[in-house]
Amino acid sequence: MNYKIALIRGDGIGPEVVGEAVKVLEAVGQKFGHSFTYEEVLLGGCATDAVGKSYPDGTAEKCRACDAVLLGAVGGPKWGSDKPAEQRPETALLAIRKDLGLYANLRPAVLRPAMADACPLKKETAEKGIDLMMVRELTGGIYFGKRDRYQTEDRGEEATDLMAYSEQEIERIGRRAFELARLRRNKVSSVDKANVLETSRLWREIVHRVHDADYADVELEDLLVDNTAMQLINRPADFDVVVTENMFGDILSDEAAQITGSLGMLASASLGDGVALYEPSHGSAPDIAGRGIANPLAQILSVEMMLRYSFGMGEAADDIRRAVTEVLDAGWRTGDIKDAETPADKVAGTAKMGDLVVEHL
Question: How would DSSP label each residue in 335-349?
């Protein structure tokens, strides 16, 4: 098989870690008899620099013509909030998610045994392990709602952002979560703020309706978002699949990432009904860009998710996961995950870490 991948190298450390992900893809192709071709696509700050806007015309069409999209991190202070919206990288991210219909963001948070010391939680909590999947609704809610600014007579300027969710949006993300749970440990934690928000009351109603009709075999619990934030610290081992709306998911997935030791280890997949997009959960880290020290494992594990969810290459995906685990078990670390006990000769740069994964493949 030949697979065509839209390659968005991004900003900051994006091009460096994407290069290592491509290296791993090529090794997978050689081992399993597949080939990969790449369509280079501009998006983010680099696109602003090249053509004057972060989301160039035709970007979505180029991505739809491919079998999957592999995205490096985008953004940086160079293209901050003082820039017009069309020049800001986050505008491009929201646009491509909407245009490709990527309504389900999957962020696995896994604490590997070799990384237990990097977990900021109590030892007895970390030793129980963490293996959860955050399922974040990605194209609705307050990020896509109407927003406005206006003057009031007595309070000065006021701003509003509308959080809106439809029955259809909630049902489809709920089904994604229940289907994933059936492939894991058969439990879904649905997170909302139903004691305050009407959107959350609708969310809870629809999630329960879908569950009772088609997924009664899956354990379902309701949690308020503030309690979830606390329980992720207190009992992370109890979570399997966590499903929630866009803004809550944005916040909670970063919390889940941090308790596993480093954002540099966490991949993500954004799925819809067509071409899917895969990217690391970390940012573009412009402060270390070009120094060859960035951790490429999140980008490499994004490839693992691509093979699994877009190409149906479960064996190859498992192989990447195994290779990453073996490299870590052998004591290799990049700068963001090393500690005082890490020998100097076990600290790897970006390219070395990519080479190590390929060797173990």
Answer: TTT--TTS-GGGB--
